């Protein structure tokens, strides 16, 4: 838990509701904008993609890198964030 | 390119054939799966149990170019070849095209020639790599025999020095 950021803990600690995509761990303004351009304007849409990929972190990180230009660390962070959120709430 | 033309179901089947776990193929996931498939096809096309592939083992590079399955892969190799030769001219495209055609008509000889710069090809076909392994083993056996023979001679020489020393 000490390796996760505050952003991660904030996201994973409660239902995401209508949070913006930039609330996801690893997704900042630039990546967030890129995702929004592709229609992933809310965190739950990205969650949808994560679920479509059967919650496979590798697949999801690859997709995220492709879609937003995220690097491995950012994509991994986002995947872990979503995974833990799913574990808690899905 | 043919990957893009395949239906979602066909893509799904191909993914399963390559052992790629996947979810539903929809707009947002399709591109990712196509990319994964292309990479898998590059790495190990011979693993695909499509009926065309069985010919690989017997007829080496020939049939490779007949099957349209592999046209996306061939095109990638083709562009690799073009790059390797350092020519971006359209004329150069003929060579890789020849590369695809002659193997159909002519036998392995041509294919081997054209396979020289394209060392990717033999590596991909499990049939050829089996022969490589067998040849390697034979080489190793011959080497081992030679070493043993030399050792025996040395041992004999030690027991009864032949007078050279």
UniProtKB/TrEMBL annotation, chain A:
Biological source species: Eleginops maclovinus
Keywords: Nucleus
BP GO annotations: chromosome organization
Organism placement in taxonomy: Eukaryota, Metazoa, Chordata, Craniata, Vertebrata
Domain of life of the native organism: Eukaryota
UniProt-listed PANTHER family: BARRIER TO AUTOINTEGRATION FACTOR 2, BARRIER-TO-AUTOINTEGRATION FACTOR-LIKE PROTEIN
MF term (GO), any: DNA binding
GO cellular-component term (any): nucleus
InterPro entries the UniProt entry points to: BAF, BAF_prot, BAF_sf
Compartment annotation: Nucleus
Gene3D superfamilies per record: Barrier-to-autointegration factor, BAF
Name recorded for this polypeptide: Barrier-to-autointegration factor-like protein
Automatic annotation (TrEMBL), chain B:
InterPro entries: LEM/LEM-like_dom_sf, LEM_dom, LEM_domain
Transmembrane segments: 133-151
Signal peptide: none
Gene3D superfamilies: 1.10.720.40
Keyword Transmembrane set for record: yes
Keyword Membrane belongs to the record: yes
Descriptive protein name: LEM domain-containing protein
Organism ancestry: Eukaryota, Metazoa, Chordata, Craniata, Vertebrata
